[in-house]
Amino acid sequence: MGLAYDWIKIGHLFSVIAWMAGIFYLPRLFVYHADAEVGSAQSETFKVMERRLLKGIMRPAMYGTWGFGLWLGLKGGWFSGASWLWLKALLVLALTVYHYQLDAWRKAFAIDANRRNSRFFRMMNELPTIILLGILTLVVLKPF
User: Fold this and answer.
1) Of 6, 20, 62, 124, which sees the most CB atoms within 10 A?
2) pLDDT tens-place string over residues 55-100
């Protein structure tokens, strides 16, 4: 495909890795934040960490994942005849919805309005693992 395609792929993979790192880490911060006393120094520190992670790393990485991914699909001609890619896109869309849900929970923590316990966030932390497994299976095996 050429050198440009390889660089686009590197951008896509870098963005995916950064985004997934945040998607796995942010709910883990919520687990500990949910157990911190409202107004405590620990709670206030979590607020800063969560905001910086989401806005400084996760959001740009999500945009990069989508941008480089669409660019790859167009440049490589993957959108015509690759049914697996459409299912992958649907799963990435599910991760995007999850990302925005994480942002909603972060905003609740930011105004001390979280009503969920640490167990809930532990359970929610498993969801992206299942979605990622589906994405990787589609990308590697290209079953249809």
Assistant:
1) 62
2) 999 999 999 999 999 999 999 888 888 889 999 999 999 999 999 9
